Every structure is written in structure tokens, then in C-alpha cells.
Design the sequence.
């Protein structure tokens, strides 16, 4: 319909599929959807060639079920639920719907071949698939490939352009557009020229990745440079989570944070590579005594070690380096983390003689089971909007992002065909534009990073690793003050800073959701520690924490996680 | 936020520039007015605001001090 | 002389006072009264420099014969009182004899202050004693004072006595000759002139040291200079120059715990409550009252945190109307900025509480500083230290008498001292090192390096220390020193000041960590996770650090007892 939007929107786009976020989930999805003949628009805050977690490269990829190698989806699911989640902060048990993951593992090989069709290499230098030994504690399952993915993003970017995806880069989402209980698109702003964009879409897919910025990174804190979160680009301000939440979509498990794994930048390069190459490094306490992994992979155990005066912990590969390791290292570092290699050289780091520190326990990013709550078709609790990759609860990691993107793309044609033309609510667009652009008019206001640091301080100090009710309440109270007083004062002298102001708005919303979730979880479970509730509450077993806005009011409920479907279990027999 | 100067009220008496313990100001000879030169060093002690005879300087506490 | 060619300015004086705070001004004024030529160098401006820049509202006099309060009693109550006990733990850490003499001359010091033009009286013209802010027992010994303008008054007094004042001038290093301190080099932080001061005696009065830790308040992105009443000028310049010249520093292992301050509001309201002797109520987050603040320590706070009872709050909601009125007077007199913030935040002490206490070290003081022998002599000839920068001489009520006592007696040293002889080579070294950051391009900004140092202290030292962390901290600090100190850059003399401050902070952070490594025990707020018991071998011992032939040396020395004639009183 010829609408009034034309008056103040500077660009209106109509598309079948709107993909928000051009990372490892968004790009495969966009490419596939375009192949199916749909019109696809992809909105990306940075530049697709080098955006997201994979921007600097990745060096491993868990394929999925592989009958030839005797790997089943069931085995992988068990590994993920019983080992990996526990290892990275959760505890045994389910926090998200296992069927989604099952189906992804099941179609893993297919997804891998689809990637290859997009031009992404899955083979080693020698032209063969190269399996690594057990970097993620998968036992002897032959399932994880070493991949040379320094340029995976440029390849994917090229693939989507070749398939006619309409790419809007340096464009940040403002909010989702809704009408009649349905998402009909989104508004966005160009972070270089400030152009306000309205996108009408039959299906909107959120793929903005992980979320971290309400805590400081776990690395040494710089004065000025506040955007270091290891491989996570600083773009991970939870834009997808926040836009979804504000539109009324359910978020899951916002109480659970992943703890910091890496205190030293060197660990990023070397540590990660060692792990991913399956080399069994050793963890030592400061006296040089070996510490078994079950100790340093659990927060409570780490805290115990700290209390006993045995920290810091160090990781070493000094005595286990095979001869060719140094060469392989260099290959990796040149392939995946050039910057780390450079730092190592500057610091004179030699993995044959030096160790790097394993971090103290602290939250800095959110857990593998946190995100937008999705069902088996990647649908969220609101019609018209979907979530894939790190944006979706329980679908974290490159090897989850890719299949989720492809699988949803397979369903998009029928979704789009069964969706009527979206109708936009003009008033909603107008109000989103006004809110979004307001910081440009503020003089002598607050710089976004100043407010962001204030939010981070609240989370560090009043939430943190060792939670308790009084602190959480105080944190919520202070956050409320900041919202009331400083959010309206956010100022942006240009569209770049407007992006930062919009990010901070997202952080503020999500920090509040996070603290509310923590207040509600009155137990200690795995790495989630409540000083005032030191026991596990079995009523929380296999429960997912759900939060959403209902008529503008935040509500929280816990819901039982679905069981694995009988047909999936039967497979094992 | 560091000291904010209302140049309409400022009479160029130099008190803020003279007295700041942290040396946040520089002096613009041409305009005969103070300039916040090292704003990030302001520690919000309020001495400039206290001493200004015309209340031409204001300090507001930034988000992180709340 | 060749030094004239190296320097932009050469000054010859009898007494050089480094730091123009309360202690420094008292020392300078008194020394000038004895006819000596005195020069003060001050990093900021005398009128508003130092801890007293914004005002103070209390002053503990000392021995009060009319009240039956003897110097011995004062020493006992001060050192054995619950506040010191909670913070420091058992025993003596510094020589109690100078403290005895300060308390003994307390009334004299008050008299001298009044002669300097500083009023000690309340609005009604009378002396107004407060009830027991330091938990000394029910004695009339601490005055409420209206000292918003104590510094401008002291500055006027000092100028009136003909003291030569060099403001916006920061000391670079002490000049020494054959083990004697013969002056200092300095730079004007606005125009950059390099200055040599030749002095027969040098009195260091630079105040406390805090900047190797973050402040106790919420940490800002940009604004890194917030330490409550401690001006950010507290970069330990005096400690560091004394150390580099070969002087002794004491008790750099012992930090003050930020036990009172979490909220900026605590500064205004909380402090005044404390100093007015009014007892606010200390509450846990559930609103249950807990025992007084004076009895809280890092350990008790940690226990409450473990039990999920934090944050803690102080409430003065229950206090009578006239108290709140007095509050407003105080806040207008002493901490206008706090009152402003309270207004901005809508804080109403009749209805609201402010958060209190955070378990982290944030400053040195109390028993840390330059180690002085009798009469405030540092361990080098010609060197003296007074006020907060002298170990065991902490607080305005110690700054004043120590400054006055030195000022009053230093003429005997000066009159017998030979002309200071300056080593040109030393001056050239100072100048080269001092001005180097001006020629560094694309280097490191001082605050970036400072934050890296602070992070090390927060993370690897902190409140709950242990050997592994301390060692790692020392190692990382060493890396920073090796790589980044030479890269410090300054685009003008103001930033040059920041570079030297960072150099001082780096030196002191290293000493701090080494001292903590040595103290293998838990005592007061010094908590070692790996040594949870108190080591009796450390009772009444002082930690001393100094450079010997360029190498750092640490020794633990017995603290003298009170002299028999004092003890038997």
C-alpha cells in the first residue's frame, strides 16, 4: 500500500526473506534461499567478507553424523548434552529442545556438502579430509575436521552476491516491525550515512550471533580499548536477542553465562589451536603440579583451587610437541589467527618453552544454551520471525550455525508461499525512527561507551560469578537508575556512534533480562553459583528459563524441555 | 562529565585554570577563556564549580559514578 | 657552572619542600619563621591541592590534659582501637615514639594553626568536640572544624612568610651526593621548563599513594582519577623519589581496605556521619542491622558475602532533624560536590540508604610510606618526610604536627649543613629520562600503561593474595616495564607529568608485590589464602625496602617500643 512511510523513510525495501546478520548462519541461509528463487535481503552491521566470529578464520568443524565413520546423531547428541555443555559451564541435563540438534547432526554431512557447493573448502592442504583427534572431548569419534578457513567469510560473501542476495552492509538493525501478532520486517540504519531503512519481509531470520558486551572480556582490561572478546567480534551486542525481545519474542536461559576460558591473548592462538589439533596439553598450577582437567573446567573447582592458593593455572605443551607440531602451528596461525601469531612474535612467546595462563573464573559471554527460544523449524514464539546460529538457544558453534541456516532455508520457500503480503504499521515505523535517531540531536550527553562501561560494571560487581539476592537486587536497582537517567542522554555525533548508542540500548535491555533471570534461579548448578542457594533444585532439571514481554511487562516462566522424539531414540538400537 | 563551561557567564578570571588539582584546563589566550583540555582526567572534585564566581562551570557525574 | 646550561632555571634554597599540602605548608611556614629560605614545589596549586583541597571537617587534637587524656593514652587508644585493629591487625607497624610526641604537642599544633590564620572553631565561635569518630572512647578530643578553605588560608600564610612557591611543578627525582640529598630536579608541567633546586635540606610531603589500584567506586571508562577525597595527584611521587635516591620505604605490603566506600554518596554522607560521631545503622541487604562499621574488616565482609548478605548499606534515616540540618551545613562546607551529586540523584538521607563497603585494596597510607627515624629524618642525610607520605603519620591531625615540628627544628640541621654540591652527570641523566617521552612518536599513552598496571594489582594482588598470583603479577609487571615504559609518550609537559607519575606507580607497584610475597601470613586486612594464620615472628615488625647499589633489598626490622619515659607516664 502506498504508505506514509515514504515521508520519512529514506529507503524502503520489499523482500521475501530478510536475514539479519551475515555470519556463518546468515550467509549459508541467504545463499540457499536465493537458490530456491526467493528474493533475499541480508543486513549486516559490518562487511560480510569479514564479519562475525568466523571473520579471522576457524580451524575446526564438527561435521555431524557420518555412517561411514560410524558416527550417529544420537552419539553426538549425547556428547553435547552430557560432556560439552557440562564442560563449558552447564551441568548434565537438557536446557534446550534436543530434537533440533539431533536433526542437525543427522543432516550434518549434507550441510557440509552444501558448504562445499558454495565454494567453502573442507579439505586439508593434501586434498583429503583431515580428522583431528578429540579436541572437544568427543572420545574417538571421527567427526571433527581440520579446516583451512582463513577466508571462509570472503568465500561466503562472494557466494551470496553471486546468487543475487541484496546485501545491505554497514547497516544495523533498529527493531522488528510487527503487525497483527506477526513480524513483517524490520527497520535499520546505515552506520556510515545514517540512512534509515524500512524492510518489509514475509520471513525475517535473526542471525546476529552471540552476545557478550555486558561483561568485560576476561582478558586484561585496557583503558581505552574495550572491545576485546577473543574471537568474538565486538559486534556481538546481542542485537538479534534484543530486537526479538522487544517485539515480544521469547528468550531462553538468559541466566546462564559461559565462563571465560582465555586470559592471555596467546591462549587464543596457541591454546585454541592445540585444543583443536587434539594435542593433549597439560594444565599446571603455579607450582608446576599437574591439574586434572575436571578441576579447571568447572567453575566451582577453579574457585576451590584459587582459595587454596594454587592459581594461576597455566597450560603447557612443552613436553608433548611432536616434531611437526611447530610447523603445523605456523600453518594454523598463518591461516587462522595472523594477529595472534604477530603478538606471539612481539612477546617472544615460544610454545616449546613457555606457558600461558588459564583464566580466573568470571562470566564474560553467554552460554551455549542461551538465546532466542526456537522450535524444530527454527521458528520463534512470534510468527514471521526465525532464529539460527548463535542467535538461537542451543545452536552455538560454527557446526550448528551452518546446518541451521541451510535447514531453515530449505523450508523458506513454503513458508514464504504461505505468507500474505506484509502490511506495515506506519506509526510503528515513525516511532522506531524517532527513537533510533534521537541521539544525533543530543548535545553534551553521555558517550555510549561510558554508559556501556557503567552497565558492565554493574554486571561484574552485582551479578558476577558468585551471585546472591542482595547483590542482584542492587544491580537491578542501579541499572534502573542508569536507564532512567542516562539512556535518554545517549549522544551520537555521527551514524557510527549512533550504532554504538543503539548497541548500548540493546545491552541495557538484555542486562535487565539477565539479572531478572538470575534472581529467579535460586539454586547452584554447574557453573551457575548462588551463594545463598548452594544446592541444586531438582525442580529445575530439564527446564528452560523463558522470558518475554507481554503487553510491555516482563514475564518469566520455566518450561519443561521436550523429550527426544521416540524415532530418534530408536535409531540407536 | 568533566567541567562544562558556559561561556556566556565566564568572565575569564582564570580561577578554574589556576586551581584545578588535576590540571584539566588550558587557557585560550585569544578568547581569554578556559578550555577543557584533558577532560578524561577530571575527577569531579567540584573545585572549579565551587570557586567560579559566576557559576559558569558545571559538573555532572558520568554514568559510571552512579 | 655547567648545570646552568642544562637547566632552564636553577634555584638555591635552604629547605626544599616537595608537596604543598597541609603537611608541606606547615613545614614551610614554620621553617620560614625561623628565617630560612624555603621553596615549595607543588604539582597543582597550593590553594586547592592535596587531600584537604576540598575541605575537611574534623581534626583530632591529641593529648588533652584537661580531659585527663595523656599522650600515652592517645597512643594506646589509637593503635589498639577497633578500627586500626580491624584494618592492620595485631601489633605495631611503625615507631610509636614520634606519634607520642605528635599527640603530646597536639594543643601546641592547634595554637600554631590558629596563628597561621586557620580557625579551629565552630560557627558559634566555640570549639566544638565531636563524639568519637575514631572510636577512641568517650573523650573530647576531636574537633568539628569548618575547613572548606583551609588550603587557601594556608597558602596565604605560606606566602606571607616569604616562602618561594613553584606551582604546576612536578618533581622528577632527588639529587644526591655521597649519600646526602642535596635537592631535586623538577619540571614545570605547563611550560615544560627543566628546573634544578639545590637545597641543604629536603622535606618530602607528597601525601599518600593510591594509583596502582582502581578506586573503590564504579569504574568509569574514561575517568580514571576518582579516589574519593584523595586527589588523583596521589601517585606516590614522594615515595618513589625517596626510594630511587636510596631511601627506605616502609610497609608497602599493607594497603587500606576500601571498607567504607562503594558509593560516591558515602563520601559525603557516610564520612560526615563518621566524623560527626553519629552512629548510622549498618544493615545487610535484607535490612537487618549488623555490628558497627568500625568492627568490619575484609574478612568479616568476605564472610557476609559468602553468606549472601551483601551488599551492606548505611542508613541515617532514623536520625533527628537537627542532625540532618547539620549534615547540610557540613556538606556545604566540605563536600559541595557530594551534595550536588546527591541532589542530582535524588538522594534523601531521611529515606534512602547508601551502599557501603567493598572488599578491595585501593590505597596505601596508615603505616605505609617513607621510613622515618626520630624527628622525621628519612634514612638519607638531608632528607625528611612529613604527613601522609611518612609511614605511620597518616591523617590531617598527624600532617599538621609533623610539618610544624620539622619546620620548627630543621634550622639546626640547615645551619650546620654544608653547601649542596650537585653532580652534573646526575642532572643530565634526570633530564634525559624525564624529557624522553616528548620525543616518542606512536608510543603508549600514560593512562593506558597505568591501567595495565592497575589491572595487574587488582587481578594478581587484590584482597585475597597468594603466591602464584603474586609471582605472575610480578612477571607481567616486569614485561610492562621492559616493553612499555620506554614507549611512554607525551605530547606536551602536562602529559609528561603523567608519564612520570606512571613511572612512579610502576616502581611502587613492583615493591608492593615483592613486599606482599614476603609477608607469608594473614594479619588484619592482609589476607594470604596460602598462609591463613598470623605469624608471630612478624609481630611488631616493619617491612623495609630500599635500593642498595641499585639492587632492591627487603628486610624485616623490629619496631621500637615506646621509650621508657613515655611508657611509664
Sequence:
Amino acid at each position: 500500500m502506498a504508505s506514509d512511510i515514504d515521508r520519512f523513510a529514506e529507503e524502503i525495501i520489499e523482500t521475501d526473506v530478510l536475514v539479519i546478520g551475515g555470519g556463518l548462519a546468515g550467509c549459508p541461509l541467504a545463499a540457499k534461499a536465493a537458490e530456491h528463487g526467493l528474493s533475499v535481503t541480508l543486513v549486516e552491521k559490518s562487511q560480510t567478507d569479514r564479519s562475525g566470529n568466523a571473520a579471522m578464520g576457524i580451524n575446526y568443524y564438527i561435521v555431524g553424523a557420518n555412517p561411514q565413520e560410524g558416527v550417529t546423531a544420537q552419539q553426538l547428541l549425547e556428547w553435547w548434552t552430557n560432556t560439552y555443555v557440562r564442560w563449558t559451564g552447564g551441568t548434565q541435563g537438557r536446557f534446550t529442545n534436543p530434537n533440533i540438534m539431533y536433526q542437525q547432526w543427522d543432516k550434518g554431512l549434507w550441510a557440509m556438502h552444501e558448504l562445499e557447493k558454495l565454494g567453502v573448502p573442507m579439505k586439508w592442504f593434501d586434498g583429503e579430509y583431515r580428522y583431528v583427534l578429540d579436541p572437544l572431548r568427543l572420545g574417538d569419534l571421527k567427526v571433527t575436521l581440520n579446516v583451512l578457513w582463513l577466508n571462509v567469510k570472503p568465500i561466503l560473501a562472494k557466494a551470496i552476491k553471486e546468487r543475487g542476495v541484496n546485501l545491505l552492509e554497514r547497516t544495523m538493525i533498529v527493531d522488528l516491525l510487527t503487525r497483527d501478532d506477526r513480524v513483517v520486517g524490520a527497520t535499520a540504519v546505515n552506520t556510515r550515512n545514517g540512512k534509515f531503512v524500512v524492510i518489509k519481509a514475509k520471513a525475517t531470520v535473526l542471525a546476529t550471533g552471540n552476545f557478550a558486551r555486558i561483561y568485560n572480556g576476561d582478558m586484561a582490561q585496557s583503558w581505552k580499548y574495550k572491545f576485546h572478546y577473543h574471537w568474538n567480534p565486538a559486534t556481538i551486542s546481542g542485537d538479534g536477542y534484543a530486537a526479538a525481545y522487544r517485539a515480544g519474542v521469547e528468550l531462553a536461559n538468559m541466566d546462564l553465562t559461559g565462563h571465560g576460558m582465555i586470559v592471555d591473548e596467546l591462549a587464543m592462538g596457541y591454546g585454541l589451536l592445540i585444543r583443536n589439533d587434539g594435542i593433549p596439553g597439560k594444565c599446571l598450577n603455579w607450582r608446576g603440579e599437574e591439574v586434572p582437567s575436571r578441576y579447571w573446567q568447572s567453575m566451582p573447582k577453579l574457585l576451590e583451587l584459587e582459595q587454596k592458593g594454587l592459581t594461576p593455572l597455566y597450560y603447557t605443551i612443552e613436553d608433548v610437541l611432536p616434531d611437526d607440531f611447530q610447523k603445523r602451528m605456523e600453518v594454523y596461525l598463518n591461516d587462522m589467527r595472523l594477529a595472534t601469531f604477530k603478538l606471539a612474535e612481539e612477546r617472544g612467546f615460544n610454545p616449546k618453552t613457555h606457558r600461558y595462563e588459564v583464566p580466573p573464573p568470571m562470566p564474560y559471554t553467554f552460554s551455549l544454551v542461551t538465546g532466542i527460544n526456537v522450535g524444530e523449524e527454527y521458528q520463534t514464539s512470534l510468527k514471521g520471525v526465525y532464529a539460527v546460529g548463535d542467535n538461537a538457544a542451543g545452536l552455538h558453534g560454527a557446526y550448528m550455525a551452518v546446518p541451521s541456516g541451510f535447514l531453515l532455508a530449505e523450508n523458506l520457500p513454503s513458508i514464504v508461499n504461505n505468507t500474505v503480503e506484509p502490511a506495515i504499521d506506519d506509526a510503528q515505523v515513525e516511532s522506531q525512527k524517532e527513537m533510533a535517531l534521537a541521539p544525533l540531536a543530543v548535545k553534551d550527553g553521555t558517550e555510549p561507551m561510558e554508559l556501556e562501561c557503567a552497565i558492565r560494571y554493574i554486571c561484574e560487581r552485582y551479578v558476577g560469578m558468585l551471585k546472591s539476592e542482595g547483590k542482584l537486587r542492587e544491580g537491578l536497582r542501579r541499572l534502573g537508575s542508569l536507564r532512567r537517567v542516562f539512556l535518554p542522554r545517549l549522544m551520537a555525533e555521527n551514524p557510527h556512534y549512533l550504532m554504538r548508542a543503539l548497541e548500548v540500548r540493546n545491552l541495557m535491555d538484555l542486562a535487565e533480562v539477565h539479572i531478572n533471570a538470575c534472581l529467579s534461579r535460586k539454586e547452584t548448578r554447574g557453573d551457575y553459583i548462588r551463594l545463598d542457594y548452594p544446592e541444586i533444585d531438582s525442580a529445575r532439571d530439564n527446564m528452560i528459563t523463558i522470558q518475554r514481554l507481554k503487553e510491555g511487562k516482563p514475564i518469566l516462566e520455566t518450561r519443561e524441555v521436550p523429550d527426544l522424539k521416540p524415532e530418534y531414540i530408536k535409531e540407536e538400537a | 562529565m568533566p567541567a562544562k563551561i558556559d561561556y556566556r557567564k565566564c568572565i575569564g578570571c582564570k580561577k578554574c585554570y589556576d586551581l584545578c588539582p588535576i590540571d584539566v584546563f588550558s587557557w585560550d589566550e585569544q578568547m581569554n577563556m578556559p578550555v577543557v583540555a584533558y577532560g578524561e582526567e577530571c575527577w569531579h572534585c567540584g573545585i572549579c564549580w565551587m570557586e567560579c564566581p559566576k557559576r559558569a562551570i558545571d559538573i555532572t557525574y558520568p554514568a559510571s559514578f552512579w | 657552572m655547567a648545570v646552568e646550561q642544562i637547566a632552564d632555571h636553577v634555584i638555591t634554597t635552604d629547605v626544599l619542600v616537595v608537596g604543598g599540602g597541609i603537611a608541606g605548608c606547615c613545614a614551610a611556614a614554620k621553617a620560614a619563621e625561623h628565617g630560612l629560605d624555603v621553596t615549595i614545589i607543588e604539582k597543582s596549586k597550593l590553594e586547592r591541592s592535596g587531600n584537604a583541597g576540598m575541605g575537611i571537617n574534623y581534626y583530632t587534637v591529641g593529648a588533652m590534659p584537661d580531659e585527663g587524656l595523656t599522650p600515652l593514652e592517645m597512643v594506646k587508644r589509637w593503635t589498639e582501637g577497633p578500627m586500626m585493629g580491624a584494618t592492620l591487625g595485631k601489633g605495631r607497624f611503625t615507631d610509636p615514639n614520634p606519634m607520642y610526641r605528635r599527640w603530646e604537642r597536639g594543643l601546641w599544633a592547634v595554637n600554631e594553626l590558629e596563628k597561621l590564620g586557620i580557625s579551629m572553631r565552630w560557627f558559634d565561635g566555640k570549639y566544638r568536640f565531636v563524639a568519637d569518630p575514631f572510636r577512641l572512647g568517650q573523650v573530647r578530643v576531636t574537633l568539628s572544624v569548618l575547613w572548606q578553605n583551609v588550603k587557601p588560608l594556608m597558602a596565604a600564610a605560606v606566602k606571607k612568610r616569604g616562602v618561594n612557591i613553584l606551582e604546576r611543578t612536578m618533581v622528577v627525582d632527588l639529587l644526591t651526593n655521597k649519600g646526602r640529598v642535596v635537592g631535586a630536579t623538577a619540571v614545570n608541567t605547563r611550560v615544560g621548563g627543566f628546573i634544578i633546586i639545590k637545597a641543604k635540606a629536603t622535606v618530602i610531603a607528597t601525601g599518600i599513594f593510591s594509583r596502582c589500584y582502581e578506586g573503590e567506586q564504579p569504574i568509569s571508562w574514561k575517568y580514571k582519577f576518582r579516589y574519593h577525597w584523595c586527589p588523583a595527584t596521589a601517585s606516590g611521587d614522594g615515595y618513589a623519589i625517596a626510594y630511587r635516591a636510596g631511601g627506605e620505604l616502609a610497609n608497602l605490603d599493607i594497603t587500606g581496605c576500601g571498607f567504607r566506600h562503594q558509593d560516591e554518596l558515602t563520601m559525603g554522607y557516610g564520612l560526615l556521619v563518621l566524623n560527626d560521631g553519629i552512629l548510622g545503622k549498618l544493615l545487610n541487604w535484607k535490612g537487618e542491622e549488623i555490628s558497627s562499621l568500625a568492627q568490619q574488616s575484609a574478612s568479616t565482609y568476605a564472610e557476609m558475602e559468602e553468606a549472601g548478605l551483601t551488599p551492606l548499606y548505611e542508613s541515617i534515616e532514623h536520625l533527628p532533624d537537627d542532625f540532618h540540618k547539620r549534615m547540610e551545613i557540613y556538606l556545604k562546607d566540605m563536600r559541595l560536590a557530594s551534595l550536588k551529586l546527591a541532589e542530582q540523584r535524588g538522594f534523601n538521607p531521611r529515606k534512602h540508604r547508601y551502599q557501603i563497603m567493598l572488599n578491595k585494596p585501593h590505597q596505601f597510607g596508615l603505616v605505609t610510606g617513607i621510613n622515618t627515624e626520630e624527628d622525621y629524618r628519612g634514612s638519607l642525610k638531608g632528607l625528611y618526610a612529613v604527613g601522609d607520605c611518612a609511614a605511620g603519620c597518616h591523617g590531617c591531625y598527624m600532617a599538621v604536627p609533623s610539618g610544624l615540628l620539622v619546620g620548627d627544628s630543621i634550622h639546626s640541621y640547615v645551619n650546620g649543613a654544608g653547601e649542596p654540591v650537585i653532580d652534573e652527570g646526575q642532572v643530565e641523566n634526570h633530564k634525559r629520562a624525564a624529557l624522553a617521552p616528548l620525543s616518542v612518536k606512536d608510543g603508549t599513552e600514560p593512562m593506558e600503561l597505568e591501567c595495565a598496571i592497575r589491572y595487574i594489582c587488582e587481578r594478581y594482588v587484590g584482597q585475597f593474595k597468594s603466591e602464584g598470583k603474586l609471582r605472575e603479577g610480578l612477571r607481567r609487571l616486569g614485561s610492562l616495564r621492559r616493553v612499555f615504559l620506554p614507549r611512554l609518550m607525551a605530547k606536551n609537559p602536562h602529559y609528561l607529568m603523567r608519564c612520570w607519575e606512571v613511572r612512579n606507580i610502576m616502581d611502587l607497584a613492583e615493591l608492593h608485590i615483592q613486599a606482599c610475597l614476603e609477608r607469608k601470613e594473614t594479619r588484619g586486612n592482609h589476607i594470604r589464602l596460602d598462609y591463613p594464620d598470623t605469624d608471630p615472628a612478624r609481630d611488631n615488625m616493619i617491612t623495609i625496602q630500599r635500593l642498595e647499589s641499585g639492587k632492591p633489598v627487603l628486610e624485616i626490622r623490629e619496631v621500637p617500643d615506646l621509650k621508657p619515659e613515655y611508657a611509664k607516664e
